[in-house]
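Support request from a user on the community tier.

User writes: "When I paste my structure tokens into the form, the page sometimes reloads and wipes my input. The last time it worked, I copied everything first. Here is what I submitted, just in case something in the input itself triggers the reload:"
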């Protein structure tokens, strides 16, 4: 994802704590999912979701003194990374009351702004759980992943995302003994942007060189980032959508420092492909395929199907293609085809598509440099964790998804126009004040054999 989720809380301090508090009991909202086969149909799984630990209240062990307040760490409780991990506890969450997260049966709704009794929460991120202490791991090669989504209440500047990241199943608990909270409390996040705002990495506080955010009074960044391979199945609002693999040259969650994080001018020198290879129908030349009243009509719910096709049609074969289709009102809708000068009419993500796109748009082919489908396929075979989120973008106002970006390029240049939203849209202060009740609903999650999760 182009930026990690940022949020503003007035009284609760949020951090990635490693011990467990007892002020609020942790109870994971249930979210049924299904596993499907071509021969046996679909069976229901008793899965649930857990809130990412970066959102949670972090306080001293056995008490209620904040370890992190506003943009600053408490220097007494947190004089150094290891002492902070020992002194601070991560507490349970009031999912609906504080974070606007509700689930019913197989449906999960994430509300954008939630005004609770003690705080105003902005956005959220949750992970699908196989048990109370383990994330559900998805081996995606030669499989398809399907879900229903309602983005009708997501305006410009917001992102209702569903994606996979190469996190550890236990949240890093077994690797790092200082992490006492584990997956039960949403620890261990990583992604291909190598985010620096994660407050605990590898069981230690990321407080060295901590710098407050210039645009979010409760956010900041530390010396370290946390990197891993990422498969963005769904980044979208009502105006635009993209699906994007992001390979890395490392396997599993990796703490980065300096050049390897790929920050700023080192963007293409890091260990992960931050750009990814995206298929955005609007960016690829079809401006009427997705949106309000479009072929895929975002005024109502629809089904999203993503297929991970291998060269020999086995779960161990080489990843060959990532294919997308939609189902709405009982009709299967094939993905749009690219309509860009100098490119063939591609309708899925392949190595050839990625190379042709990078050339046509004048972009660096960092996807290939970071291992492309080989490394992405290795992650899909090993197993990845499902993340679902709603967020606004303090780094680039979500213009990279739904508007023209970068701003210093002519929108008529191939690859610059990505959606119909204005280049002045997406400012977090505007989105948070004008669309606080925005939300996204994900439902009917299915995973299984190709062709088994939807009706054609």
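"...and here is what came back when it finally went through:"
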């Amino acid at each position: 994802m182009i930026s990690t989720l940022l949020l503003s809380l007035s009284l609760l301090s949020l951090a990635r704590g490693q011990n467990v508090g007892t002020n609020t009991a942790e109870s994971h909202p249930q979210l049924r999912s299904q596993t499907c086969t071509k021969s046996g149909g679909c069976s229901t799984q008793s899965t649930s979701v857990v809130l990412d630990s970066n959102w949670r209240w972090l306080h001293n062990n056995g008490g209620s003194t904040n370890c992190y307040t506003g943009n600053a760490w408490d220097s007494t409780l947190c004089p150094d990374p290891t002492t902070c991990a020992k002194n601070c506890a991560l507490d349970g969450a009031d999912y609906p009351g504080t974070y606007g997260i509700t689930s019913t049966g197989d449906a999960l709704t994430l509300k954008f702004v939630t005004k609770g009794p003690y705080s105003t929460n902005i956005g959220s991120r949750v992970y699908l759980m196989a048990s109370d202490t383990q994330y559900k791991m998805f081996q995606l090669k030669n499989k398809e992943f399907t879900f229903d989504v309602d983005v009708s209440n997501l305006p410009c500047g917001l992102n209702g995302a569903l994606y996979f990241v190469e996190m550890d199943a236990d949240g890093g608990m077994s690797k790092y003994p200082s992490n006492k909270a584990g997956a039960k409390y949403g620890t261990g996040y990583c992604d291909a942007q190598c985010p620096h705002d994660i407050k605990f990495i590898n069981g230690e506080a990321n407080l060295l060189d901590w710098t407050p955010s210039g645009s979010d009074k409760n956010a900041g960044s530390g010396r370290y980032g946390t990197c891993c391979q990422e498969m963005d199945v769904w980044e979208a609002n009502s105006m635009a959508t993209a699906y994007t693999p992001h390979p890395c040259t490392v396997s599993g969650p990796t703490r980065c420092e300096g050049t390897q994080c790929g920050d700023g001018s080192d963007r293409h020198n890091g260990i992960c492909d931050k750009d990814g290879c995206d298929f955005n129908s609007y960016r690829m030349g079809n401006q009427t395929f997705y949106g309000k009243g479009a072929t895929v009509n975002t005024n109502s719910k629809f089904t999203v199907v993503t297929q991970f096709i291998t060269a020999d049609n086995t779960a161990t074969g080489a990843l060959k293609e990532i294919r997308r289709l939609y189902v709405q009102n009982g009709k299967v809708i094939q993905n749009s085809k690219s309509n860009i000068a100098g490119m063939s009419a591609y309708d899925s993500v392949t190595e050839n598509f990625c190379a042709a796109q990078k050339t046509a748009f004048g972009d660096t082919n960092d996807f290939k440099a970071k291992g492309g489908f080989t490394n992405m396929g290795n992650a899909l075979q090993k197993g990845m964790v499902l993340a679902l989120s709603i967020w606004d973008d303090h780094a680039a106002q979500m213009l990279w998804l739904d508007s023209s970006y970068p701003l210093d390029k002519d929108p008529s240049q191939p690859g610059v126009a990505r959606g119909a939203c204005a280049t002045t849209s997406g400012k977090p202060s505007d989105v948070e004040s004008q669309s606080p009740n925005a939300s996204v609903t994900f439902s009917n999650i299915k995973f299984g054999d190709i062709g088994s999760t939807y009706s054609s």
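Agent notes: The reload is a front-end session timeout and is unrelated to the input. Helices lie at 81-87, 95-99, 351-361, 366-369, 372-382, 399-402, 428-434. The longest helix spans residues 351-361. Escalated to web team.
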